[in-house]
Write a structure and sequence with these properties.
- Chain C: Keywords: Cell membrane, Membrane, NAD, Quinone, Transmembrane, Transmembrane helix.
- The complex is a heterotrimer of chains A (300), B (401) and C (175).
- Chain A has 300 residues and is mostly helical.
- Chain A has eleven helices and no strands.
- Chain C is an all-alpha fold and 175 residues long.
- Chain C is built from six helices and no strands.
- Chain C is globular, with a radius of gyration of 22 Å.
- The chains are: A mainly alpha (300), B alpha/beta (401), C mainly alpha (175).
- Chains A and C meet through α3, α4, α5 and α11 of A and α2, α3 and α6 of C.
Chain lengths: 300, 401, 175
């Protein structure tokens, strides 16, 4: 309940999220070019001191709205995810809220891609909308399956329902679909087509300076939130021996995050004109079947 | 002042580099890429993401204009490195070092910023070169708008819709793109409706880098088969690396480039064939890659014959995937013969018969091949054919003869 | 505190709704409308209708993006900065909307609102569902799945002839 979460958590939440997102960026730099722990800081300083590009006839209001909404959405999504056993915002329909905030990224990318008035970012922005239509339905069914298993849309109750057996174990299809859509919601790695190099960086091609910094920080934060949500949904939440609950939450989040970061660059990027068919013909039926199985188990 | 300098120096530690190559600058580009790898450096996908612009080779007039537009689009602090086609490894090294120093030079960067402010903001009327820039601002047909940009015109779509038409140039300055190639795309949404092929030449003539051993042998010089086969292997690996990068598979693309540089190095290490075999197995075994590359950019025998296509793409008819496998097989065969001391005969270069400009046929068939393709598929198709514009400059090899 | 938030959101919702007709770009109009809907969604959260509020936020973002793609595909200009207007048939439009607004506002003021009986249920969305569907719940859920299956099936049937990989001149496609 909301009265049990102290006020300082509101301040702590963005800090914890920023710390996790930073370590995701550092892991990524380390895996890809051996940049080390200071690499994201270096890049951050470089972008902060950088001038903004002048773009012709750009709609800067829309660009800024798109860029800023990425980290904002990540923080708002993180607010309902419990660290240990308490979330900053103890919302009874937290899973749906998480879903809503993650969809904000579609708008963010579309706005940033459209607003700069340049062809490649425009195509990049459209690509995320197509990607969203491909991954969102299987993703929703994965979320619903976990919620169905627990009989609740509350992250805390979903985590509590897994004592003994993690949902990842007896809902493997839903978990796999969730991991794939975690990549997609942060347009990361194999799901990074909206920002792909074949469009000279896609939706982010024209961003520079602080805009670019906020955009990519927001993307790291989204990836982190996607990893963090997997913990209460499928990995038993804060439960575990010896360590306190919050430590288990962090350890599990790091494990998922490391997996997501590692995947980048290991696979070719998925194009939506191909992936769409697979998402609708394979993933949706598979996720529905998984939901059916879980529904039957819950009823009996 | 001290803090600012220190911050800039810290930030300039490993700057992202945007590489623009001119036809004729291939050797320099390879040196730059291997030097960047040695430094754990990063390459940027767009000018906006970069701090350093490296120009490899000497661009001709049209290309120089495009390079200027790219330079203009780069936010400060920024640094420019020009390396001509004869640059040595030491010069490349020194050039990048100088760029890093320049980035943290507060006075120089402030002067650069002040000079840009004086010139005022960018506008489409003031500069035509913007259309050549990578990711260039949308260039529209139709009537002029008060901001100086024209509104998109509309045209019939083959699905029976009336959709806006966008004219987007691909190249000549674009990451993982054949140097000097310019494709004027007419897009509706993300579907290519029409393609115009153009070439932005380099200023320097000279021998096409990938065909060089065969041309030297034809001119009467003594060249061994081993040397030529090393060049062939490296050429195929360069093309394959480019295709894998366009396909978004960074890890494999980086490995292909590393193998390329190993193959070119004077004495190729003994484990190179084994390492290449592992790489080829991994690429050929990737189900995702098969799924993504299969069925696009299909060229059958008749189509190839009609356009006079020769070389590897004609030997491996089929889709983008078939051509990638063709390169990998060709590399494997070439690597076996790198020690052959026999004198080189024949004209079968990495892209087909040298001197007969096999890349000309590739450019000729692009408009028909790309019509109706999705933008990403079009880029993959171009990368899978990897035409070499260096072959097309008449002076390139006639001057040599 | 809640009342202040309510009024701020109400004014913001009405203001961004009006902005739809004032801005001169299709993209801005779309996202002004989205902002208006989001304010309404948060209002629902304030009323403790959590599920409905969150659902409005989720659905409206997705809906507006799909709409933005369609609108701009058909009526667009790159950058969206060409002057355009969302208002057609100016005089009649103003008359009709003023009349509709007056009727609705009058309804709010004139209806004898019932007094609250009992307490707020723990989960209003659940109670609402029970009240509307009651014993027909199973039927409604099956119908819901049937509608979804129909949607997916129709999309699958429609993809038989895709948009890609066909040359403009070739009807059958290059595949």
């Amino acid at each position: 309940m909301s009265e049990t979460t102290p006020a300082w958590t509101v301040v702590a939440l963005p800090l914890v999220l920023a710390g996790l997102a930073y370590s995701a960026a550092a892991m990524d730099a380390g895996l890809r070019s051996g940049g080390g722990i200071a690499a994201p800081l270096r890049e951050g300083v470089r972008l902060i001191v950088q001038q903004r590009r002048r773009m012709h006839a750009a709609d800067m209001l829309l660009v800024r709205a798109g860029v800023l909404s990425l980290p904002v959405a990540a923080v708002l999504a993180a607010a309902v995810i419990p660290l240990g056993r308490t979330a900053v915002w103890d919302l009874r329909v937290g899973v749906v809220w998480f879903n809503a905030m993650e969809v904000v990224a579609w708008a963010s990318l579309w706005l940033a891609g459209w607003g700069v008035n340049s062809a490649f970012p425009l195509v990049g922005g459209y690509r995320l909308v197509a990607q969203g239509l491909a991954y969102e339905l299987p993703h929703m069914f994965a979320l619903i399956t976990a919620a169905l298993g627990a009989g609740s849309l509350d992250f805390g109750e979903v985590a509590a329902a897994q004592h003994g057996l993690w949902f990842a174990v007896w809902m493997p299809v839903a978990f796999a679909v969730y991991l794939l859509s975690a990549l997609a919601m942060a347009f990361w790695g194999p799901m990074g087509h909206p920002l792909a190099d074949d469009l000279a960086g896609g939706a982010a091609a024209e961003l520079s300076g602080p805009d670019r910094l906020v955009f990519f920080a927001g993307r790291s934060a989204l990836l982190t939130v996607a990893a963090a949500a997997a913990v209460p949904l499928f990995l038993g939440g804060a439960s575990g021996p010896w360590l306190p609950g919050w430590a288990w939450s962090l350890v599990k989040t790091y494990a998922v995050l490391a997996l997501l970061v590692w995947v980048r660059g290991r696979f070719p990027v998925l194009r939506m004109d191909r992936f769409m068919a697979a998402a609708w013909l394979v993933l949706i039926p598979a996720a529905l079947l998984q939901a059916l199985v879980v529904g039957i188990v819950v009823l009996t | 002042m001290g803090v600012r300098t220190r911050l800039l120096r810290f930030a300039a530690g490993r700057p992202p580099v945007f590489v623009a190559a001119a036809p004729g600058g291939t050797r320099t580009r390879l040196l730059v890429e291997s030097e960047l790898r040695r430094r754990n450096g990063r390459t940027a996908a767009s000018p906006a993401a970069a701090s350093v612009l490296v120009v490899c080779g000497r661009p001709g007039a049209a290309l120089a204009e495009a390079v200027d537009a790219v330079w203009d689009a780069m936010p400060g602090p920024r640094a420019l490195v020009r390396l001509d086609e004869a640059a040595s490894r030491a010069e490349v090294d020194a050039g990048i070092d100088r760029a890093v120093r320049e980035l943290s030079d507060v006075a120089a960067q402030q002067a650069d910023a002040a000079e840009r402010r004086e010139r005022g903001p960018w506008s489409p009327s003031g500069m035509d070169g913007h259309t050549a820039q990578s990711g260039g601002h949308a260039d529209h047909s139709g009537h002029e708008h008060h901001t100086g940009l024209a509104m998109a015109g509309r045209a019939d779509d083959r699905d029976g819709l009336k959709l806006d038409v966008l004219h987007v140039p691909l190249g000549p300055v674009l990451k993982d793109w054949p140097a000097g190639l310019v494709l004027g795309l007419t897009l509706q949404g993300d579907v290519v409706q029409a393609v115009e092929v153009d070439v932005a030449e380099g200023a320097a003539g000279g021998v096409p880098y990938w065909d060089e051993p065969w041309l030297r042998a034809a001119a009467g010089e003594r060249v061994t088969v081993g040397e030529a086969e090393r060049r062939r292997a490296a050429g195929h690996l360069d093309s394959a690396g480019r295709l894998l990068a366009v396909a978004g598979w960074e890890g494999a693309a980086e490995e292909a480039r590393l193998l390329r540089d190993l193959a070119l190095a004077g004495e190729a290490p003994a484990e190179l064939p084994a390492r290449f075999a592992r790489f080829a197995r991994r690429v050929k075994g990737s189900r995702t890659l098969r799924w993504m590359l299969g069925g696009i950019g299909r060229i059958d025998q008749g189509f190839a014959g009609r356009h006079g296509l020769t070389g590897p793409p004609a030997r491996h008819p089929g889709d983008v995937l078939a051509r990638l496998h063709g390169w990998l097989d060709g590399t494997g065969e070439a690597l076996v013969r790198t020690g052959d001391p026999a004198p080189l005969r024949g004209t079968d270069g990495p892209r087909g018969p040298v001197g007969a400009m096999p890349s000309r046929a590739v450019l000729a068939l692009l408009p028909e091949l790309l019509g109706g393709a999705e933008l990403a598929a079009a880029r993959l198709t171009v990368a899978s054919l990897d035409p070499d514009v260096e072959q097309l400059t008449e002076t390139a090899w006639t001057a040599h003869e | 505190m809640q009342a202040v938030a309510f009024w701020i959101l109400a004014v913001a919702a009405a203001g961004s709704g009006a902005a739809v007709f004032a801005v001169d770009s299709m993209a801005r109009a779309t996202f002004a409308l989205l902002a208006s809907f989001l304010c309404v969604g948060v209002e629902l959260l304030l009323l403790d209708l959590r599920y409905l509020g969150v659902l409005v936020v989720l659905m409206m973002i997705m809906e507006m993006l799909v709409m933005a793609v369609f609108m701009i595909m058909y009526m667009m200009n790159p950058g969206g900065l060409m002057p355009m207007t969302m208002v057609h048939n100016h005089r009649w439009a103003i008359g009709i909307s003023a009349a509709v607004f007056a009727a609705l506002a009058a309804g709010i003021l004139l209806i004898p609102w019932p007094k609250r009986q009992g307490t707020v249920p723990r989960d209003p969305a659940f109670s609402l569902g029970q009240a509307i569907m009651g014993p027909k719940m199973l039927v409604m859920m099956v119908v819901g799945i049937a509608i979804l299956a129909t949607m997916i099936a129709s999309v699958v049937l429609a993809t038989g002839r895709g948009r890609y990989d066909r040359s403009p001149g070739r009807e059958d496609g290059a595949k």
